[in-house]
Write a structure and sequence with these properties.
alpha/beta; 24% strand; four-stranded mixed sheet; globular
Length: 175
Amino acid sequence: MVTIDLDGTGICIAENTVPFLNHMLDQISAHGLFDLTVKATGDTWIDDHHTVEDIALAFGGAVSKALGDRKGIHRFGDFCAPLDEALTHGYLELSGRPHLRPRPAQSQPLVDHFFQSFVNTSGTTLHIRGLAGKNSHHIVECTFKAFARALRIATEYDDRRAGMVASSKGVLTQQ
């Protein structure tokens, strides 16, 4: 079960069988100022893959549902997050078209899969650029922080749009 309030205060309740993912969900919530609840169990006796994938798919779906017709949002967001020696830049567009371009400082297949699953169900274009880093924990954590801040910027209401969709086509939702 995943729920999200995009206009929250950064409260996170993450209860799943992948402790490091709980830590990363905390980062999304705290740095995106989203109220996020994730409760899941999975077949972690095999590995973490299915649990991470299922949570990311549900998270993307919850974000898409919370955005509705996407009227009035900024649509685009980017943020560069440092963590000690690590530095990651995340760029995203809430276009309705899923695409992931990961370029981490070190390859993290399960992290890439989390974001691929997220973009598939949220209709997000996401580019991740790992600019520096040696410690894999720092690289992954600053990636989630950059993603969270970019998502926060993109989902925030743009008063100048006056409730209009940020698109010349008038639509940003998946078909």
